[in-house]
Amino acid sequence: MLVRFVAASLIGISVIEFALYWVVCQHYNTPMRIFPCVLKSIPAVLGIVGLIRSKALAQWVSDKLDL
After folding, report:
1. Nearest-angstrom CA–CA distance, 4 and 30
2. What confidence tens digit (pLDDT) does each residue in 7-20 have?
């Protein structure tokens, strides 16, 4: 459950950051550049991968905590 929450949080943070970047670019009438958009989408990609592999990640964390 915690793994899914963290993955969903990463996706949410990425969406908020991308939306704020778009608002700032619109406010200052500057074009959106590719590099900042790619950087802001990295947490979303990690979150999607985390949601897909959530069971394996949860098992891995559980194994690490059992030491």
Report:
1. 36
2. 999 999 999 999 99
